[in-house]
Amino acid sequence: MDELRDLYQEMLLDHHKHPRNYGKLENANRKAEGYNPLCGDKVTIYLLLHDDVIEDIAFEGVGCAICKASCSVMTEVLKGRPEAEAEKLFGEFHDLVTSDPDSMVDTDGLGKLAIFAGVREFPMRIKCATLAWHTMRAALRQSDDVVTTE
Amino acid sequence: MTGFAESAKRGRETTHTPALDVGRIRRDFPILDQRIHGKPLVYLDNAATSQKPQSVIDALTHYYAFDNSNVHRGVHSLSMRATQAYEDSRKKTQRFISAADPSEIIFVRGTTEGINLVAQSYGRPRLRAGDEVLISAMEHHSNIVPWQILCEEIGASLRVTPMNENGEILIDEYEMLLTPKTRIVSIVHVSNSLGTINPIEQMIEMAHARQVPVVVDGAQAAPHIEVDVQKLDCDFFVFSSHKMYGPTGIGVVYGKRDLLDAMPPYQGGGDMIASVTFEKTTYNTLPHKFEAGTPNVAGVVGLGAAIDYVQSVGLPAIAAHEHDLVNYATEKLLTIDGVRLIGTAKRKAGIVSFVLEGVHPHDVGTILDNEGVAIRTGHHCTQPVMDFFKVPATSRASFAMYNTRDDIDALIAAMTKVKEVFGNG
Questions:
Q1: Largest CB tally within 10 Å, which of B196, B197, B281, B423?
Q2: ipTM for the assembly
């Protein structure tokens, strides 16, 4: 049950029930859709990028608690950050959720993203957590293709 | 409380279906006797794949330990033995579905490959631009995509028989969709995501009244319902070994002999030829014409053992037992606040699909697994069904002969954990 508690932390469940920055961003200048064909999670990430800074960010879509919470926390964390930092956090978040569950991870600098460390114990759920980030990166890079986790 | 004692206890508690000694059956499935996250395994993902009895595992081991050789080729003893075992399984399969002749049994990799074979070898030469292929709203992707690919190439159209909110085919609509343009009907016998048992006898009759041949996707039917292809009068019946206690990687296409005879081969290669020169190849006779290359001999032998096992228990007793489990699971699930059943047809096989308000099926699946309960979550390769019921995915519990009411009680108890975690218990 401990692993399960690590996965479904209070903060994660709160973001699932009350997602932040949810809905269409009307003045977005970047947008990408992400899809996980395995489970049907589908998200759209909207960005307002100005002078290489993410001035605003929002998401909408359907997915499990981990997917939705990951989108929600990510939008909170990235709002106001430079594009380069978003790219860097992408890498750090990816490392966090795909690292060996027995290894120690340095979560300093990850802030509230650290709540997703529990995902490491559940290999089948890693893609639920990373879909938001892959989609965000596709929006940054303005690729028109639908991103999938496959 | 595992192993024998657990099995014996479970066995005693299922006295409502005296025809089936579930305790004894459970002991035949070694995989069931284990713990997952410290809890006894409760395996309720049988519609994805069933577990294998020791006799099937032994048949595979025995084949590789003593009989392994290539089939239909060598004159040596092992090759003869392997060929004998392979062809014996074909005869068992023929009897299992009451086909008229063993040559009407074609071994393939699974239901998916089987439907592709029928679409390509039977469908392609017959379809013309403007023709129609008729399926239903509850098909598995494997009975949609092969026809879609074919229709797109030829300029034919794929028509879809609608269903009602219970997940039952609208038979009047079906009849209206059978038009002079309809060339093929391909229909699922038992829906993998809803559990609906379709009235295929009636649907075949209606199609045949208009000279339209019918392909039946029997993947979910074969382990649960006695199938008599001659009585059904279906033109093709396709199913998989691994959903009926046999090995993975083996499936069966039954086709009426005259249809199979008239069809071109699906793949070219060894074993499917009578003679080859660089100018011309003469094809082998049935069933070998459709079995190019070295087949999955061990898999076929394992399927034979699975058929023996199913028949030793008896499909009527299995069906009655699973019917009880479906009713019990339905009743219990509906006592949980926020549960909505997806698929409430009057005639259902051993499948219960549901959603829990406010919790995505994948979260349900992860928490249930933590309680030792294995179910399937997702769209079950039936995205159009999910769209119809306006859900992204469902949780699905599906039953086999070794499941008990205790298993369902464990499922229900695990569901209360889900509600605890998500704070709406």
A1: B196
A2: 0.87
